[in-house]
Amino acid sequence: PGGLYWAVMDLAVNSGNGRAAKPLQRAAGAHEDGAIGPQTLMLASNHNKPADLVDRLQEHRESFYRELSTF
To answer: What sign has the CA pseudo-torsion 9, 11, 17, 18?
Structure first.
């Protein structure tokens, strides 16, 4: 889903690939190994509410930024 791709890309660019992969895997129900592979892509693509995945990623992003001492 398009919005999900943008949310993952934003996290990856601003927080690192692993920080983008794990919350996506958690939200999609995939094994959290920090690498977006076939299982993660399949589960995320077939998720019945992609907007929920985007919301979870945004919540993770906000939480991560708030934990930074420079935020």
So the answer is: negative
The pTM of this model reads: 0.81
- The pLDDT value recorded for residue 15 is 84
Q: How distant, in Å, are the alpha carbons of 29, 61 from that of 20? A: 14, 9
Give CA–CA dist 29/71, Å, rounded. Answer: 30
Residue 30 contacts residue 39 (beta carbons within 8 Å): yes
State the 10-residue block means of pLDDT for the chain, 71 residues long.
84 87 92 94 91 90 88 74
Under DSSP, is residue 69 helix (H, G, I), strand (E, B) or coil? coil
Cα of first residue to Cα of last residue in the chain, in angstroms, is 30
Q: How far apart are CA 1 and CA 68, in angstroms?
A: 30
d(CA 47, CA 71): 32
